[in-house]
Amino acid sequence: MYTINFIDKMPPNTPPPSPGITRETEEIEGEMLEDDDVVEVIDLDDLDDDDDEEQLMQDDENDMSVDTDIDIGSSLDNESIAHEKIAEVNSTIVFSLHKKSVFSCDISPNVNLPLAASGGEDDRAFIWNYKTGELVIELNSSNNSPIYKDSVIFVRFNKDGSLVAAADMSGAIIVWRIRNNCTTNSDNTLDSQSVIGVETKQVWSFDTSDISWLDWHSGASNVLFAGTEESELWMWKVPSGDSKVYMGSGEKVEAAILMPDGKRIAVAYGDGNIKLFDLKTGDVLNTYTHYDKTNETSDNEEPQLGLPIASLDVRSEGGGQILVSGGVNGIAKVYNTQTGKAIASLACPLVGSREAHSSNTPKTTTVEAVLFSKLDQNLIITGTLDGIVTTWDVSTHVSKNSVNVGEGVVKMDWRNT
């Protein structure tokens, strides 16, 4: 049996968490332009398209009969990175309906509905109550037959929790509408003892090639992105299905991240290249390459092929943005998004090695997660498959401390306070 542990409190002596990074978004305005590398279908005059909102509302009124109404009741410096194992499990809730490995989880941003979504190797996707661990609904067909034919590797709520997308490895993407069906208090909050009533309805679906990345637009509740192994980055309006495709150079999309202005997106590929696209025109505004520091060439030499990228993050700074990428070579690279210049190369330490990236040490770790802190802390945090979490000073590019968490790090995020 495979379980999801929901952690409600931090272990003793845990440093105070940092607030989440604020990313301001703006409406994307203007008409779409034709581009040879772009399949032109979508109009981005207004990402929160009124037609889509009206269509969802009309669906609510006309199709109530097909809705499913369900009630659910220690820090080390670089001198010595110790081999530590996590001694205790701090979870307060366990969800255990998945029968194989769990590949993806997400939490609804709607504070009035304590919902989590999960997908796994068992080809199943669930929505459940993260306060009780009880099942809300399994995301399947209207007659309750299985709807996914492969491992469900992505589940994502949109920015207000009104929609949830779930995608399997083969490229089947399905979006459900999530609606609160229970009575709230006068202050629009749920009573702590009340039973949650949720209505769900499938509102959109699409089949693409094998999927490798998926997320919603952070500023537009009805715009969904997906990357594929065929080097495509798709963008759709939901539920109208208007779409646009941004093409890479043939390599798999490994990761992507929306810029803080909401008008551009950085897409990382399997050959180590990162392309910065303008969402309105489809133009490639800049290209960055994730080189291993030891493989960088002189101006007179041909550049070597970049290495695959595993993670991305971005932060606004001084009127521009800086981008950080984590690679399979154990290196995190920092770029100026306007000039395209790499401004730092951070060699992440290996377990038990102070000089993790000396010429005599093989580079075997992957920087699976990267994060910027809030601006006044001025830090980059890297997490590797060796289980090493390291904080770096953005200005000096020097590591401040490292922690061995005992297991490989595959995801990091800030705890909201």
Structure description:
There is one protein chain. The chain is mostly beta strands and 417 residues long. It has one helix at 50-62; strands at 4-7, 38-40, 68-72, 91-95, 102-107, 115-120, 125-129, 135-138, 152-157, 163-168, 172-180, 196-207, 211-216, 223-228, 232-237, 243-247, 253-258, 264-269, 273-278, 284-289, 309-317, 320-327, 331-336, 342-347, 367-372, 379-384, 388-393, 399-404. 3% of the residues lie in helices and 41% in strands. The strands form seven sheets. It has a five-stranded antiparallel β-sheet, with no helix packed on it. Strands 3-12-11-10-9 form a five-stranded antiparallel β-sheet, with no helix packed on it. A four-stranded antiparallel β-sheet has the order 5-6-7-8, with no helix packed on it. It is globular. 40% of the residues are buried.
- Helix residue percentage: under 10%
Mean residue pLDDT: 78
Envelope shape: globular
Q: Largest sheet, order of strands side by side?
A: 2-16-15-14-13
* Helical segment count: 1
What are the low-pLDDT stretches, counting only 5+ consecutive residues below 50?
8-41, 63-87, 190-195, 293-298, 300-304, 354-359
Number of strands: 28
Q: Tell me about the largest β-sheet.
A: 5 strands, antiparallel
Q: Span from first to last CA?
A: 33 Å
What structural category do the secondary elements indicate?
mainly beta
Helix-strand topology string = EEHEEEEEEEEEEEEEEEEEEEEEEEEEE
Strand content: 35-45%
